[in-house]
Amino acid sequence: MRSALVGSVLFLLFISCQSKETNQTYATSSQVDFKQVENLVQQVFDSIWSAKKATAISKYQTEDFLLLEHGAVWTNDSINDWCKRAAIRDQGIKRVNTFDFFEQKKEGARVWMAYHNYATFTKDDQVLGKGQWLESIVAVKKDSVWQLELMHSTRVPTTE
């Protein structure tokens, strides 16, 4: 009887240790994924919205990507058209975005994040204006690569 009790205690201790190790591995894996998705958001804004590179769309966004912004629905096609028009009318204005990520969740190969997006617009080192948005994204991982599937963006009035 005593050996059965000791065996049960050892088994429970083993299971407990395995569970903690699994949870720690999942937490570490999630943190890596969150950082990769944060970097993905930065790359999307640097490449598509700042540099106006339509060729980056398929690299960073799924084929069925949607951007919901201020009551408008943007697809990869409409973003591609915007990039082409914006590149033509480019007057040397630089856009730099920074982000304050405040919420993130992961479920399998899908990550959801909410963040504040701050943009500064400059020309010849002179600040022309600033913008701020409250945004959320859904990213999916396919073949070890994260891509944006959905973005929702709401302009926040600035005090400047």
TrEMBL record:
<dbReference type="InterPro" id="IPR032710">
    <property type="entry name" value="NTF2-like_dom_sf"/>
</dbReference>
<keyword id="KW-0732">Signal</keyword>
<feature type="signal peptide">
    <location>
        <begin position="1"/>
        <end position="19"/>
    </location>
</feature>
<protein>
    <recommendedName>
        <fullName>SnoaL-like protein</fullName>
    </recommendedName>
</protein>
